[in-house]
Amino acid sequence: MSGLDRAELAQQGAIRADGLRAAGVELVALTFVDNSGITRVKAVPVDRLWSAAAWGVGASTSFDFFLATDDIVDGTHSRGPVGDLRLHPDLDALVPLAAQPGWAWAPVWRYDQEGARHPQDARALAAAATARLATLGYNARTAFEIEWVITAADAPDDPRSATAGPAYGYARLSSQARYLRTLVSTLTAQGVAVEQIHPEYAAGQFEVSVAAGDPVRAADVAVLTRETIRTVSEQHGLRASFTPKFAPDGVGNGGHVHLSLWDGDRNLCAGGDRRFGLTETAEAFGAGILSRLPALLAIGAPSVVSYLRLEPHHWAGVYRVWGLENREAPLRLVQGPAGQRERAANFEVKCFDLTANPYLVVAALIFAGLAGVESRASLPEPADVDPGTLPSAERLPTGLAEAVAAFEADAALTSAFGPELATTLMDIRRGELDRLGALPPDELCAVMRYLH
Residue 95 in 3-state DSSP? Predict the structure, then answer.
């Protein structure tokens, strides 16, 4: 029997549609992120929002087996062309799109035709992880950093076509000041709280940071922010790339995740009696993440091209260490300035990138952290130097196959993800290895450059 209150959903959909019409909205884009990190979409006229809310919009189960290249692979739980899912918009997350007049956007929940949650719904998994935290009396605040490279639309393979000047330099900001201003005002109009934006190290590279929030909301914001960047870039004669490696000899785009653990209004990453002010619970949570980083890479660095970015001495975090404000550590404790640490202290995971599904990322980090809390794990000695100079530092996986093996060996993560999703994710990773794993780096970068 369906757990959906279809009459209530239809009524709420009709109410939201009235508001959208008044704002000039005619169409609503409904998105989910697939197992390869691609945002897939169906759209409905605003007059049909009530129906989409109550009854969903059809979508094939085969989307679970798409690669980023749109190849469809086989898998243990694949039904091929058979079967249908229903996409139900989350009405509480509806946003009119400032960069696309006449359009609104909403992330979806995926259900089967009987009204049961689809076991491969990544957004539902993120919600389940958040709920599990809540049952233990905790909540998490999460945010994604979005890095991207812009090129001139008529020179898509050359980031220097869009900006020039020193890394992090004002000259780069000045050259794209109108573009960046439009981007921030557009994000703000869509309810995204931008905290900072700046040119990054590589030519044509920028980064935007947003305020932390509930993990599901943080993943929603990551999707909305990236698609807004893509749209605003096109409107300014630019092309945006979020790939972890634009060119083999260049600097990569990261998808760093910031995560703090809270007990009500108390930040457990500050004010404690452990190192650097961590509480015992926060240290155990961080230790759960650190110990599982090899397995977590199969979720947070899920593409063959991800491992071109994971190089020593590139601030990507490739050794299994942690440290206070250590930008070469994959798990960095960010304290914040004195006087703000009760609010600002958090863990940053630096080894992830934007080929990842953000809903799977927040779920995986929460489940890993909770496994640490449940086992009362503790962090090892922190690294206060570049770990690449330490002979004893353990290297994280250098390729996707190694990360897949680590994930499959991790009982805490595979159990939390459930057998169908855990198996399918690794089927997808092997499918990408089969199709792209033998490509030389320049060809791999070219194939993946604009897919995410």
Answer: strand
- The proportion of the chain whose per-residue pLDDT surpasses 90, expressed as a percent, equals 95
Distances (CA, A) of 226 to 141, 203, 223, 233: 20, 19, 5, 11
Q: Report the distance separating Cα 183 and Cα 188, nearest Å.
A: 9
Which residues, 6 or more positions from 313, have their beta carbon under 8 angstroms from its beta carbon? Answer: 328, 386, 388
Tokens encoding 73: 């692979």
- Within 10 angstroms of residue 101's Cβ, the number of other Cβ atoms is 11
d(CA 431, CA 90): 31
Q: Which two tokens stand for residue 84?
A: 């249908």
* Whether pTM exceeds 0.85: yes
List CB contacts of 401: < 8 A, sequence separation 6 or more: 433, 437
Q: Which H or E run contains 69? A: none
| Sole residue written with tokens 């309810």 | 191
Instruction: State how far the Cα of 353 lies from the Cα of 316, in Å rounded to an integer.
Output: 10
For tokens 């690294």, the residue is: 383
The position carrying tokens 């980090």 is: 365
Q: What is the pLDDT of residues 418-427, one digit of tens each?
A: 999 999 999 9
Closest of 175, 122, 197, 96 to residue 359, by C-alpha? 122
The residues facing 112 across adjacent strands are 85
Measured distance between the N- and C-terminal CA atoms of the chain, rounded to whole angstroms? 37
* β partners of residue 161: none
d(CA 89, CA 57) in angstroms, rounded, equals 9
What pLDDT shows up at residue 155? Answer: 92
Three-state secondary structure call for residue 169: coil
pLDDT of residue 169: 95
pLDDT of residue 1: 43
Distance from C-alpha of 308 to C-alpha of 335, rounded to nearest angstrom: 30
Tokens of 211: 């305020």
pLDDT of residue 250: 85
Task: Specify whether the CB–CB gap between 110 and 121 falls below 8 A.
Answer: yes
Angle between helices 358-374 and 280-291 (to 10 degrees): 120
pLDDT of residue 2: 67
Which residues of the chain fall short of a pLDDT of 70? Answer: 1-2
Q: Which residues contact 12 (CB under 8 A, 6 or more apart)?
A: 53, 91
Contact (CB, 8 A) for 64 and 35: yes
Which residues, in sequence order, are CB contacts of 129 under 8 Å at separation 6+? 215, 362, 363, 366, 367, 416
The helix/strand/coil state of 244 is: coil
Give the contacts of 447 (CB within 8 A, at least 6 positions apart).
69, 436, 439
State the Cα–Cα distance between residues 44 and 46, nearest whole angstrom: 6
Can you give the pLDDT at residue 245? 97
What integer pLDDT is reported at residue 396 of this predicted model? 98
